[in-house]
Amino acid sequence: MKMKKSLLPVVVVTCLAFCACGGGEAEKAKIEVIPLGAAFDNQTELKTSDCFKKIRYVALETTDSCLVGQGAYATVLNDWIVVTSGRNRCQLFDKKTGRFIRSIGHVGEDPEGYSNVHGGWQNPYTDKLSFPGWKNKIVVYGADGKFDQIWTPPIPAGQFPATAAFDYLDADIIAGYYSATDSLPARIALFRGEEVVRVESLLTEQEGDGAITPNDIASISVLRDGGDGMMIIKYKDDKSAVYPLGNSCFWHADKDLYFRKSYNDTIYRVSAVKELQPARVLDLGVHGWTYNERFEDKKDAIYPTKFMENKEVVLFRFMTNVYNDKQKTYNALYRKANGIVKVCPFDDKITDDTNGFLPLQPVSVSASGEFAAILPSEEVVTWFEDNAGKTDIPAEVAALKKVGEEDNPVVVIME
User: Fold this and answer.
1) Residue 302 and residue 410: Cα distance in Å, rounded?
2) pLDDT reading at 356 higher than 80
3) Whole-number Å distance between alpha carbons of 331 and 2
C-alpha cells in the first residue's frame, strides 16, 4: 500500500538510561516517536495553513542610523523585534510598529565589547541579551542598551574539537552543554551566576575525540544550514567531521527548555529540579546517522540542525549528504495535535496559501510562540511589480506597497 505523505507518530515505551552527577537510574517513559525518516521519503509541499493561524507583517523603519546589514536574522523578545545582521549589528525595533528603538552593544575588544552577534540568546524573563565574548566569556546587555555584565562559565569548555553551548533556563539559571572529550562524557550543567547548580552526564555515546592540532587538518568550511551554521573539517587521514556552531542544541517552548545533541535521536526536557526527561524521539529509519558513523560519508543520512517550537507545532531543519556535493537542507513540520509530519526542500520555503504572498522561511521562534521570518525589501517590491493587476490582495499585504527597494526588510511574525 502506498504511504501517505503526512505521517503520524506512534507512542512507544522506551527505556532510556542516563545518569546525574551522583549516579542515575533507568527510567521508563511514554514518549512520541516522530517518523522523520519516512516523511523524508515522502516529501510534500509545506503551506502556511499547515503551520500557522496568524501572520502579521512589520515593515522596519529605515533611516541612515538604523540600516540593517546583510544576512539579517530576526527574533521576537517580548515587545521588541531583535534584528542581527552582518557580524556586528544588533538592533531593537518595536514589535507592533517597526519603529527603530536602539542598537544593543558593539563588537570590540574593549571591556564591554562582544566578538559577534551570532550564537547568543535573549532572555524574556529578564529582557537581557547575551552575546559571545572573548576567551569563552559571555557579554550581557539589557534591552535598554546598557551593559550588564561579563559572565564566565564556571566550567570551561574542553580543548577543540570539544564544544560548549549555553542558553537560559529561567530568570536565574543558565544551561550549558559540554560535548564529550577523550576523558569526560558529554554533560549538561546548570549555573546560577558563578554557582554550579548541577552537572548531569549523558551516557548516550562512546568516548569523545582527543584534541586536534592544525597539522591534523586538511581543510575547514563553514556552512549555512538554516540554523546557526556548522563547521566541516576534513582531516589529513581522509576523515571528515561536522561541528554545530552556536547553541542550536537548545530551544524553548513556553516555559520549557529542550535539548538534543548530535547523533542522538532523543529530545530531552531540561529542568532545574530533576534529571533530563525524554520528551520525543526522532525515528530516522534507514537515514539514521549514529555516533560511531559520524566520520562516514553516509548517503542520505539525516543531520538535524535547528528546532523551533510553540504550543502547536515544531518546525525544524535538517541536512543530508553533509560531506559531499549532494548536500541539501530541508524544512520539516510536526503538528502536535494530530501528529502529522511533513518534509520539503529548504529552498522551496513555506508556500503562503493564507495571503497569497511571498513564501516564508522562519528563522526563529520566541518562547511565547511567535515565529519570525525576514522578507528582503527588494523581493517585496518585485512581488508588487509582478502582481500589479491583482485586485484581491489582503489589506495587511497591500500596506507593504509603501516599502521601497532600498528600505530595511519586512519582518513576518507568525503564530
Assistant:
1) 32
2) yes
3) 23
Q: How far is CA 163 from the centre of its chain?
A: 17
pTM of the model: 0.90
Q: What is the 3-state secondary structure (H, E, C) of 54-94?
A: CEEEEECCCCCCCCCCCCCEEEEECCEEEEEECCCEEEEEE
The Cα 329–Cα 222 span in angstroms is: 14
φ, ψ of residue 275 in degrees (nearest 5)? -60, 165
Residue among 334, 332, 365 nearest 346 (CA): 332
> 114: closest CA among 89, 134, 128?
134
Contact by Cβ (8 Å): 153, 164: yes
**Cβ 8 vs Cβ 304: under 8 Å:** no
* 233: its cell numbers: 573539517
Instruction: Kindly report, residue by residue over 22-33, the tens digit of the pLDDT.
Output: 333 334 457 889
Whole-Å CA distances, 235 to 215, 216, 221, 328, 404:
9, 6, 12, 22, 47
Residue 211 neighbours by CB under 8 Å, 6+ apart: 158, 159, 160, 161, 162, 182
Distance CA 366, CA 95 (A): 12
How far apart are the C-alpha atoms of 124 and 77, rounded to whole Å?
6
